[in-house]
């Protein structure tokens, strides 16, 4: 059997989700194999990336390269993850070319008028190895590199940090709250992850900084030496009337630190949340209702018809291992 190269892509949107679908995601982007999902990831210890030379009003090519490089550094310096990047140079190659070069750059995509940026992949569908990943930033929007943010523009480094999460193989996090806007779309009330799929909006620079959910995600995919032995896993199953619930958002809350780390249940309702600080956690299970389901998961079979549920007891994440699996019972809406 030969490895097939396939394209898949994910996007960060301004206000509303309405996009060609994403890959199957749990926390990680994954390929659906008959034997189960295979997470996609880089295997090279040092990933090389290129910057396209296109400038836009307010951002020179040199500023673009510098902001993307700083966003890479943000991920590279996570102490519990082990992945490194190398700027390989400027190029006239554009994102989305199949050329084995991982290129970051501006492109004008007027028909994608809610999409700030997107990440594409070419992956080996047998192993899940990422062969190439390109990231484009939509130049129909106004961009800023201001340290404090420009209220009329989107912060380049924040969006780059989100897209590099995808570039690494992370899917969208559902840790965030939104409300419907009367004029359409959604407004983000609060987000607990850079990988939340809806932008915080113009002027916001908060997504330059990773949150616990982002850090757990990258560390689980590229664990550094002691990560697995020093953190804990909580695993269990979401059930309604005895049957497993597919696509439930499960969040572990650490009452000491306030950290929120989430995942989605698999088709049989099982879930596994890794990278937890050992100790007791509250468990909340909720349907995916802060954006269209397909911004997180492959929609078929995802169950959103149950009530938000707080598990009645705290669950302890043991040091270097997993708890005894438990059931979270949810009620129909
Ligand atoms: Zn995204």
Describe the fold and architecture.
The structure is a single chain. The protein is mostly beta strands. It folds into two domains: 214 residues, Collagenase (Catalytic Domain) (3-Layer(aba) Sandwich); 99 residues, Immunoglobulins (Immunoglobulin-like, Sandwich). The protein has four helices and 22 strands. The strands form six sheets. A six-stranded mixed sheet has the order 1-8-9-7-5-6, covered by helices on one side. Strands 16, 17, 19, 20 and 21 form a five-stranded antiparallel sheet that branches. Strand 2 and strand 3 form a beta hairpin. The chain is globular and about 55 Å long. It binds zinc ion (ZN).
Topology overview:
Layout: E1 5-13, E2 24-25, E3 29-33, E4 36-39, E5 46-52, H1 61-76, E6 84-91, E7 103-107, E8 115-124, E9 130-138, E10 143-144, E11 154-155, H2 156-168, E12 176-180, E13 186-191, H3 212-221, H4 227-230, E14 232-240, E15 243-244, E16 249-253, E17 260-264, E18 270-276, E19 279-286, E20 309-310, E21 315-317, E22 326-329
Parallel strand pairs: 5-6, 5-7, 7-9, 10-11, 14-22
Antiparallel strand pairs: 1-8, 2-3, 3-4, 8-9, 12-13, 14-15, 14-18, 16-17, 16-19, 19-20, 19-21
Helix pairs in contact: 1-2
This protein binds zinc ion.
Count of helix runs: 4
CATH topology of the largest domain: Collagenase (Catalytic Domain)
Oligomer: single chain
Strand order of the largest sheet: 1-8-9-7-5-6
The run of helices and strands is EEEEEHEEEEEEHEEHHEEEEEEEEE
Structural class: mainly beta
């Amino acid at each position: 059997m030969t490895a097939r190269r396939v394209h898949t892509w994910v996007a960060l949107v301004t206000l509303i989700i309405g996009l060609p679908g994403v890959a199957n995601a749990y926390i990680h982007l994954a390929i659906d194999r008959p034997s189960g999902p295979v997470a996609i990831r880089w295997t090279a210890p040092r990933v090389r990336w290129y910057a396209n030379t296109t400038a836009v009003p307010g951002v020179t090519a040199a500023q673009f390269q510098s902001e993307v490089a700083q966003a890479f550094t943000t991920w590279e310096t996570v102490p519990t993850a082990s992945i490194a990047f190398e700027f390989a140079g400027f190029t006239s190659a554009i994102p989305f070319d199949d050329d084995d070069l991982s290129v970051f750059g501006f492109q004008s995509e007027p028909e994608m008028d809610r999409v700030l940026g997107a990440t594409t992949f070419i992956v080996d569908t047998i192993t899940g190895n990422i062969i190439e990943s390109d990231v484009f930033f939509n130049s129909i929007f106004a961009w800023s590199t201001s340290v404090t943010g420009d209220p009329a523009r989107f912060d380049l480094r924040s969006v780059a940090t989100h897209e590099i999460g995808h570039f690494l193989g992370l899917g969208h996090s559902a840790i965030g709250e939104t409300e419907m806007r009367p004029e359409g779309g959604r407004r983000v009330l609060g987000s607990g992850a850079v990988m939340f799929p809806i932008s915080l909006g113009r002027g916001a620079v908060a997504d330059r900084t990773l949150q616990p959910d982002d850090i757990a995600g990258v560390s689980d995919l590229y664990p550094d030496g002691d990560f697995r032995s020093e953190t804990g896993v909580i695993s269990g199953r979401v059930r309604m009337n005895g049957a497993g619930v597919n696509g439930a958002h499960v969040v572990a809350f650490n009452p000491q630190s306030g950290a929120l780390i989430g995942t989605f249940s698999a088709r049989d309702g099982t879930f596994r949340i890794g990278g937890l600080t050992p100790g007791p956690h509250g468990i909340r299970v909720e349907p995916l209702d802060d954006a269209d389901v397909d911004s997180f998961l492959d929609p078929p079979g995802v169950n959103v018809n149950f009530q938000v549920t707080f598990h009645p007891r705290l669950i302890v994440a043991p040091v270097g291992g997993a708890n005894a699996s438990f059931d979270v019972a949810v009620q129909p809406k």
